[in-house]
Amino acid sequence: MEKMxxxxxxxxxxxxxxxxxxxRHCVTADGIVENVAAHxxxxxxxxxxxxxxxxxTDTDKVIRMCLLHDIGEALTGDIPAFEKTRxxxxxxxxxxxxxxxxxxxxxxxxxxxxxxxxxxxxxxxARVYKALDKLEAVIxxxxxxxxxWLPLEYELQKTYAAEAVKGFSILERLQEECxxxxxxxxxxxxxx
Length: 192
Known about the structure:
mainly alpha; Hypothetical protein af1432; two-stranded antiparallel sheet; globular
């Protein structure tokens, strides 16, 4: 098995370091524009915290998926889901492969297989990762100032993760709580 050189390791980290600067559509509770790295990190934390609730799930694999899922955005930038086109998705897929090719062959094969599994959404782990990815975005929007929301997000907040969480009772409960928080936030804002 080929080992990664120190230079190769540092160079790869330099490429994905951009994720700390790539803004996302959302704003934090403190009014700071969220970045892709923060989103990926919190999605991974969610997976870890739910490990005892997600029976028959390889949570370590889900955490790896959560940490890596948006690395292509280091090259493409982030495009909100409601604006993303097939062309954008294809460009991001190419960016992921370009980044992963700089890894040793065995690590390239391992991470490429992980991305294929995420894209196929056929395994329990891939479905959990995708649900957490969507839930994290909904939770973050609920934690942000509603004045930063676009009009379409008032409804999107209630539906964005709904399909993805089906079949996972803890994730379904989180989705229901998110909807309650969204509705409360909208109601409070409409009274201002």
